[in-house]
Each structure stands twice: as C-alpha cells, then as structure tokens.
Design goal:
Elements (H helix, E strand, L loop, with lengths): L6 H4 L2 H4 L13 E2 L11 H12 L12 H10 L7 E6 H13 L5 E6 L3 H9 L3 E6 L8 H11 L3 E5 L11 H10 L3 E5 L20 E6 L10 E6 L1 H7 L10 H10 L3 H24 L3 E3 L6 E6 L2 H10 L2 E2 L1 E2 L10 E5 L3 H18 L1
Helix pairs in contact: 3-10, 4-10, 5-6, 7-8, 11-13
Organism: Nitrosomonas ureae
GO molecular function: histidinol-phosphate transaminase activity; pyridoxal phosphate binding
Subunit structure: Homodimer.
C-alpha cells in the first residue's frame, strides 16, 4: 500500500496528537466516576415509558424540531417565550456546534483551567485556537487574568462551567457579569449541574445580548438519553440551528424525556437526596486526616490526598470507581473526584477509603 494512504499523511496533526476521551469499564464496580444520578426512575414511571416506547414509530424519522419536547422543556424550566431553545445530543454536540460556527481564521475560544475537558478538545476538533486561563489556587476565578486574556485575544467565544467541573465550585456571579460585559464575543455558561446548585444565569439572558446558557438532563437522571439544550436570543440560535444535524434527537429520547418531564417532582426529590448525601460525605471526608475537601455545589466532591493515584488504584481493587485527576492539570495534583451515589454506595466508599488511608499513612 502506498505511504500516501497512511493516517499521519491525511489526518490533521493536532488530531493525531490527541488522546481519545477515555471512558473506563465499570462492570462489577460501584460507579462513582461520571457524575450520574444514582437513582433509577420509579417502577410506575418505567412502566409508562415501556408502553410509550412499545408503540413508538421507530421506522420513521423523529420530529426534527422536537416541538413537543421543546414545549415541555419551556414549561418545566420556566423559559420565557422570547428565549429560543436548541437541542443537542448531549451538551457536547452543542459545544461543537458553537465552536464550528465561530471558527473563522484566527478565532479564539477561551475557557478556564481546570474545567470541562471537552471545551479544549472540541476547540481542537473545530480547528479554533484554544486559550486556557488558569484558576487561582483555591479554584476561584482569576478575573484580572481573564480580563487581560480577553483584551489580548478578543475571543469569539468564552465557555464557563457554573458550577465548574471538576472543582465543583460556583464562580463569583459579579465576576462572570464583568466577563460578559468585557468581551465582544459570545459567553456560554454551562449549567450542567444547576439542579444541585440553586444558582443560574437564566434571568440574565434578556439583559446581555451575547449570553448563551447550556443545560442538560444528564445529571438529573437521564444521562442515557443524551439530551442537552442551549438557551439564548433568537438572533444567535437561528444561526446555530443551521449547524445542527437533522434528526439529532432520536425518537426514544424525545418521548421518554417528555414523559419524565411530566414527573419533575421525582427528579427534584432525587436532587435533594443527592445534596443531603453530598453534605454528609463532605463532612465525613473533612474528618479524615491528610484529606483536603473542596466545597461543592455539584453532585460530586473534589478532594486532595497524598499519593492520589495509589489511593485511586486501591479503591479500584476494592471495586470502587472514582475519577483520578492527578496529572491532568498542575492545580489538580493529587486530586480525586467522587460522584455522590446512593447512601449505601457512599457509605461503602467512605469506609473503604478510610481503611485504605489507615494502611498507607
């Protein structure tokens, strides 16, 4: 075969340099690594969904505009009629749509670091320059450095996660407003964990023409459906809709999500249960010597411990899977992230972690 057919001669070098997003196998594990809601839907609701899916016309394409689902989302999330909705196959597709849409020659995408890794990866996919602005040591927003970067790079788009992933904290509200006002580009606030934070920028959309807001149902118990949404003014979403692939929201996602959104009290109760468990687990971890626990407004907790990778592997041997962040960013040295699970899962994690640490001290 001719050497001209080799991938390294055809695929962009920055893609060749990437590592694929790795999702570890969780078979047989207590899975506390991916910020999922640990609670299943009620048997009654699952029976209703089974009836719906049994009669779904899967031989037909889904409603490309997802009109019924958008209507239910608007009602459930109290989205005013002057705000448009764009749906994506998870938030990842929405990030990709935005990055591709603004990727003019020389365009820049800015985010903070450490933050959601897909901001950087999708910037590479879309062939747009990425600039990561470091957070402070306590993971708070460095407003002065951010404003300096905005003045220097004049970004086409800024992505900010609120609360931030993987740190779990909410950035200062006024500081984010300063960023929105300082840039001539778009600011996208990713509120993936809003259900656990009781804080949102949704009421700012009508006051700031360059503000867009992302939400997802993945953290609220519907991760398997892969449904994300973008909220913003029609002048933006009309253009971004051109980038959305036809039929990107499958029929099963549409009918199941719409059904579950008729039962939001269940999701709210589960979110409250997760918040209570978060408080209990944070308090417990804070009692363990040599662990630094960071405050969280999400459904996970970031903590720092000596020999984090060793601890991570020891937990894995005991069938507990969490996220090892050691080595992913200098600010995350010796950091681990644990998703809030069920009370029993959390108790097992805490007990096993404490036993491992007692042996490694």
């Amino acid at each position: 075969m001719s050497n001209s057919y080799l991938p390294e001669h055809i695929i962009r070098p920055e893609i060749l340099a990437l590592s694929a997003y790795h999702v570890p196998s969780a078979t047989g594990m207590i899975k506390l690594d991916a910020m999922e809601n640990p609670y299943p839907l009620s048997p009654e609701l699952r029976d209703e969904i089974a009836q719906l899916t049994a009669n779904a016309p899967v031989n037909r394409y889904p409603d490309s505009s997802a009109v019924l689902l958008k209507g239910k989302l608007r009602q459930t999330l109290a989205i005013s009629d002057d705000i448009d909705i764009l749906l994506g196959n998870g938030s990842d597709e929405i990030i990709q749509i935005i990055a591709m849409a603004v990727a003019k020659p020389g365009a820049v995408l800015i985010s903070v670091e450490p933050s959601f890794v897909m901001f950087r990866m999708i910037a590479t996919f879309a062939n747009i320059q990425y600039v990561g602005v470091p957070l402070k040591q306590d993971f708070s927003l460095d407003l002065e450095t951010m404003l300096t970067a905005i003045a220097k790079y004049k970004p086409a788009v800024i992505f900010l996660a609120y609360p931030n992933n993987p740190t779990g904290n909410l950035f200062d509200y006024a500081a984010i407003l300063s960023i929105i006002q300082a840039t001539s580009g778009i600011v996208v606030i990713d509120e993936a964990y809003q259900a656990f934070a009781d804080a949102s920028f949704i009421n700012e959309i009508n006051h700031h023409p360059n503000l867009l807001l992302m939400r997802t149902l993945s953290k609220s118990g519907l991760a398997g459906l892969r449904l994300g949404l973008l909220l913003g003014r029609s002048e933006w979403l009309t253009q971004l809709e051109k980038m959305r692939l036809p039929y990107n929201i499958g029929i099963m996602t549409q009918i199941i999500a719409e059904k579950v959104l008729h039962h939001t009290v269940v999701l709210s109760e589960q979110a409250e249960a997760i918040k209570l468990e978060r408080a209990k687990m944070s308090a417990f971890l804070a009692t363990i010597e040599n662990i630094k626990v960071y405050p969280s407004k999400a459904n996970f907790i970031l903590f720092r411990v000596h020999a984090a990778t060793q601890i991570f592997l020891a937990l894995k041997q005991q069938k507990i899977l969490i996220k090892n962040l050691d080595g992913t960013h200098p600010l995350l040295e010796n950091c681990l992230r644990v998703t809030i699970g069920t009370p029993d899962e959390n108790a097992q994690f805490c007990s096993i972690l404490q036993a491992i640490l007692s042996k490694t001290v």
